[in-house]
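Summary of Year 1 activities. Much of the first year was spent building the evaluation harness for sequence design. The harness presents a backbone, in tokenized form, and records the residue chosen at every position. We chose the following record to illustrate the format because it has been used consistently in internal testing since the harness was completed.
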């Protein structure tokens, strides 16, 4: 027994010493470094959890793991600054936020169950029956209520008189009634640039709209023909990158969800006729270029006064430095480095393993990371495997705390990104 006690003390004393030592370095408060977290989707809305689908696993670094089923929670990180890793049963990605100091954060997280976060609200719109020939109508909803607006352009054929304003409304905020403005107008000869004519503008406002609402526009409601302005657009992407453009009308005082998209997928340089709506509005011009993959295009978005020529010139993008393209012996000590000669910004690194379905996304303000720092819960080391990686930059944010101070996709700072091209590499045995 004495022998057992002696051997036990050999194991216990170092452990007790570590506990005592860690107590010396702990924060003043005995509960540790508590952080208020509010988890948001990419539209900026708090998650509304469906317990049949959602279960989020959150940890400071890789452990300890907390299982959550609510969008707001108090989180013990134990240290500051700290990292945060988020996964879920249905996740499309693994998320890692690095180097956080703030005690009040609002991280974004994309999950397949995000679709359960919203309910459809389709507003029916009746106009006088189309008689002569097919034409195009635009429909737009403007409100300070948080929503996602879907298709707003409809081809109306002879005999048609009904179209819809398709909205997705956050499930946990789904109201009995919503308030907002509905605008519609006709774009005659849509697709024929030289003959495009905007007319029959209509405007209705209501504070009692619901899923069974029908908004009726009579002939007298649609008498106003819109003046228009021929506008030049120019998007200059970085050398060697393919560009694309999007033109929309933005309404000051409202979120981007109220924007009315006129035309997208255009070439880099073109002329287009813009309607002069009898409302306070600007032209939002968004120029993009190829990024790390076909879904993640870099973009720059600016507001212009009606009548101004709209010009966007992208900065030289950030680039990958190391490891070299096709490096075949990456280890835990390999340095992943990007080149960026600008001092400010937050980077989003994305890593994919060939044949795996859960990419890793890392938010950090660091330009260099060891592979051992990249590997994390849910994205562990795999020997002799092919990976692909690239990086994006959010230049409007000073650091990760700034990015997490609010859902970043809703802020004016989220008006530009830069992107590297992708690279492959291989891990060693």
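For this record, the design step produced the sequence shown next.
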């Amino acid at each position: 027994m004495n022998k057992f006690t002696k051997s036990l003390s050999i194991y216990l004393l170092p452990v007790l010493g570590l506990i005592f030592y860690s107590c010396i370095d702990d924060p003043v408060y005995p509960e540790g470094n508590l952080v208020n977290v509010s988890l948001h989707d990419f539209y900026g809305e708090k998650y509304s959890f469906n317990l049949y689908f959602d279960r989020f696993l959150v940890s400071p670094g890789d452990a300890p793991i907390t299982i959550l089923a609510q969008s707001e929670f108090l989180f013990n990180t134990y240290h500051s600054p700290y990292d945060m890793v988020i996964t879920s049963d249905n996740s499309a990605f693994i998320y890692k936020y690095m180097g956080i100091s703030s005690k009040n954060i609002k991280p974004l997280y994309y999950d397949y169950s995000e679709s359960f976060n919203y309910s459809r609200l389709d507003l029916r719109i009746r106009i006088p029956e189309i008689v002569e020939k097919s034409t195009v109508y635009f429909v737009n909803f403007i409100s300070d209520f948080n929503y996602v607006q879907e298709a707003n352009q409809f081809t109306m054929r002879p005999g048609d008189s009904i179209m819809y304003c398709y909205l997705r409304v956050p499930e946990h905020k789904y109201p009995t009634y919503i308030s907002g403005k509905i605008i519609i107008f006709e774009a005659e000869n849509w697709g024929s640039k030289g003959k495009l004519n905007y007319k029959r503008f209509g405007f209705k406002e209501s504070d009692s709209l619901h899923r069974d609402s029908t908004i009726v526009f009579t002939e007298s409601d649609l008498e106003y023909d819109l003046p228009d302005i021929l506008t030049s657009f120019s998007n200059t992407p970085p050398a060697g990158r393919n560009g694309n453009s999007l033109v929309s009308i933005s309404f000051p005082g409202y979120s981007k969800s109220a924007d009315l998209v006129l035309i997208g997928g255009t070439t880099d340089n073109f002329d287009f006729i813009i309607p002069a709506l009898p409302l306070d509005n600007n032209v939002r011009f968004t120029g993009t270029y190829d990024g790390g993959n076909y879904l993640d295009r870099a973009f720059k978005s600016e507001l212009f006064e009606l009548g101004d020529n709209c010009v966007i010139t992208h900065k030289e993008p950030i680039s990958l430095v190391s490891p070299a393209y096709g490096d075949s012996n990456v280890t835990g000590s390999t340095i992943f480095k990007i080149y960026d000669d600008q001092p400010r910004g937050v980077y989003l690194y994305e890593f994919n393993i060939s044949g795996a379905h859960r990419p890793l996304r890392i938010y950090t303000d660091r330009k260099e990371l060891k592979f051992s720092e990249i590997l994390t819960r849910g994205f562990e080391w795999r020997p002799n495997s092919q990976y692909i990686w690239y990086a994006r930059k959010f230049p409007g944010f000073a650091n990760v705390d700034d990015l997490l101070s609010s859902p970043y996709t809703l802020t004016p700072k989220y008006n530009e990104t830069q992107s590297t091209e992708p690279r492959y590499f291989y891990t060693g045995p």
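The first helix runs from residue 2 to 25. Quantitative recovery figures across the full test set are reported in Table 2.
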